[in-house]
Structure of Retinal dehydrogenase 1:
Amino acid sequence: MAKQVEIKYTQLFIDNEFVDAVSGRKFSTINPANGEVIAEISEGDKADVDKAVDAAKRAFARNSKWRKMDPYDRGQLMHKLADLITRDLDYIATLETRDNGKTYASAVGDIEAGIACLRYYAGWCDKIQGNTIPTGDTYVTLTRREPIGVVGQIIPWNYPFLMLIWKWGPALATGCTLILKPAEQTPLTALYTAALAKEAGFPAGVINVIPGYGPTAGAAIAEHSEIHKVAFTGSTEVGHAIMAAAAKSNLKRVSLELGGKSPLVIFDDVDVKEAAEIAHDAIFVNHGQCCCAGSRTFVHSKIYDEFVKHAKQLALAKKVGDPFDSKIDQGPQIDQEQLNKIMDLINSGKQQGAVVEVGGNRIGETGYFVQPTIFSNVTDDMRIAKEEIFGPVQTILKFDTMDEVIERANRTNYGLASGIITKDINKALEFAQAIESGSVWVNCYDAITSQAPFGGFKQSGIGRELGEEGLNEYLEIKTISIKVTKNN
Ligand code: ADP
């Protein structure tokens, strides 16, 4: 089933070298399309994180090559890395599809989006400016915006390459040095991109990649007293643990991009077929494995039945199978654990009285495939309306008024994204002002670009990624005050 691809790197990347883990341990990375082992990967732990931190500290030391580098040249290095990723795009996308199970076309889309993001941040390197501040005649006061230093980055498995670039882009642009832990399910593209960073000419120790498990390698990063910032993308539950570890260790800065249960609200003045298409993509993209997935589809009662009919047609037309086959729309879920979680939630929906319009079952026994599933007659109290499913499951809820739908949409601890589909600009603006979420998409969904901030309200996160706000998460502000001595 899987396209063959040579696996070139399986060891930890520390100080520009591929090395075994101190413990000598390895773990398997699995092809989710068939459950087979792709490769044995060195398993990093605290001892390896310590080594990587030492390398990152040396790279960040005063007068190091990286610290002395002209910011323009730092930007050129990032562009060079983007060039090498472009050269090897097919190889990286193939690795990603093999390790993650997303379709090859969507892997290509992720790599292209990553290249654009890296180039966006490359452009920032020589534009990170401070201020001069009026403080009277006695002092000249100015600010410098300086890199935080050694940073740790922990990323999930759903967009392995793209999440790496979202993390590396601002860290490198600001001049930090970094230790990244990819998810244990998907280490391959991170290791390959580390090799490209060396080829591009990044000095030793600027970039370090430690594959391994969360409670060991991940926790060692979150607890490390010489890492001064941790950036995390993953579950809300682990986000709590990261913040607690940061508080207990050295008060390192924390940015978190966590879960969601994002509402997409569809009013009765729309082209119902078009709205159903937007809502379909909002939930089914990346097999539902998307933190900002439009996972609560609120549909006005006047068009509810017609909407469900179109949504069903779209789900029925979806082809599930080998992610390397260009006719396939949906590959496998990431692993057995996620499959079990999705099936448990689907079963809860059935038991709590939602109507299965389409799907509702696993496909076959090999690989982790799930039928595109649609539930209608969903009510707010059901688990499928409250918990993040992270699978190809659309839950369609009914509403009547703006006030009602805003209140229900906001009745969640999450607040990552939201959407509204309507022809009425006043409805769109009223919703955009009232909804508690970091992104609001009007007549579209997932309109994410490198230039615009992305992140969550409430328990969907702390801080923002992308845009200038994403850069600020990697900067300290230093105020310099210079006394003016008068000559007379
Ligand atoms: P998901 O539910 O999407 O797998 P997780 O939050 O479990 O998300 O994992 C996201 C990332 O966090 C992965 O790289 C994982 O290894 C890491 N991780 C999991 N547990 C911890 C932990 N206790 N400390 C630090 N990192 C962790």
About this structure: Residues 154-156, 181, 183-184, 213-215, 218-219, 222, 234-235, 238, 241-242 surround adenosine-5'-diphosphate (CB under 6 Å). Residues 90 and 108 are 7 Å apart (CA to CA). The first helix runs from residue 46 to 60.
